[in-house]
Amino acid sequence: MLLGKELYSYKTQSDLKHKEMKSLAGVYLKEELEEFTDNGVVLYPFMLIFPNKRRIYYLSSQKEKDAWIKAIKEATGYASLHDFYDLGDILGKGKYGLVKMATHKKTGMGCAVKIIKKKELSIKDLELLKREIEVLKVCQHPNIIKFYDVFENQDSIYIVMEVLRGGDFFSFLHKRKFIISEELARSIAHQMATAIYYLHSFGIAHRDLKPENILMVDKSDTSAIKLVDFGLSRTFGPSETCREPYGTLCYVAPEILLQQPYDKSVDCWSLGIIIYLMLGRHLPFDSQDDKEIGRKTIF
Questions:
Q1: Share of the chain above pLDDT 70, in %
Q2: Is 286 a catalytic residue?
Q3: What pLDDT score does 299 carry?
Q4: Among residues 18, 267, 278, 288, which is most buried (max CB within 10 A)?
């Protein structure tokens, strides 16, 4: 018997006192394939995955199974990615999983789904991922990737975002041998600057701005750009600073390298490095030796 978010089990149907009660808060639901008993009876199971155990429940018909699954989803607010989206081809691979093309079942809208395997994540990685999701939920700007939805089950986290087909900005520059017009450089710099201004208006610092974290909307020479990858982002109060050593060496601000207090303005340094790269065709502080990059950046 399902009452609210609590599942009561009875030894027999006529019993008035339940044998056990389980809370369904934080439970994952997984549909299982049909099973056959030794005498050929078909059973229709589903699995409930609790924080410390898994339990399979068997129903005598598909109709009964569907009714239970629907009731549990409504009671717990649980939603599966596959209830809303059909997955398609692989668009790319990342450190923790895949990015696949997907189509919304009702609207037909195309989107990208980032599939992250939980077993690949450390506690720190999971914290950064949740931070990224929270930032994406807040941000609605034409030059920041659009976030649509997030789903989670016992194995994976699914982040649904808009599809960007142009590749990253570093590849865009490399394909053109780092030669682009001043007009195009100005347009891209303006798009980055407006996105950064928007983030900073919410007190959010990206903290890892670099060409690889800027995606092109399409493959044209005049494609718009979108900022992505907010795993290292952080929200700052009006006069708040921090000393966390985040960023990518060639683009990181000197105060981070010196472990001095810094705020969201470190993004402006990274923006300056990217503009220099667009106009000068090379990085201002670069070397095969990481220590030399740091020395050049600081001095």
A1: 99
A2: no
A3: 67
A4: 267
